[in-house]
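Q: Sequence in, structure out?
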Amino acid sequence: MVGPGVISGVGAGVGVGVGVGVGSGVGVGATSTTVPVSERNYQTYFTDGLNVTGMMADADWAASNREGLKRFLTAWFEAVAWGNDPANRDELRAVMARGAGVELDSIKTMEPSEASPDGKFIPGYLAKLQDLLIQYGLAKGLDTPLAEDKFVDLSYLP
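A: Exactly. Output:
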């Protein structure tokens, strides 16, 4: 599922594949070497699902380009709806193969993960994400979890 709106807490765009992140200052890699390999099993930690698609933008830029960002997200969600439709899977695979520069045969049995059609996070995901960011020191300035409305600004969603 794709994550939501705009990540704004900690003056950061935190990008562990969480969604449309907006901020300035903090970028986080999902496979940081500070997390022991044995503890990188996100499927057992995020038992309700994992938000894996994301975007980030600077908070000042987003504020200055609010309407353009909303138009972009409207187009994004139209593309997501098309890609989530099982009737479009063969064409989606062809688009992905062209974009990745690989032969279609190499991905013809791939099942693309669905993305959220409205940009909302999986319930409970942000709390668990913040716990990991804090536990492994992956987001400077994030020492205690923030309320979701302080961590994510959904006002940019169309």
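The chain has a mean pLDDT of 73.
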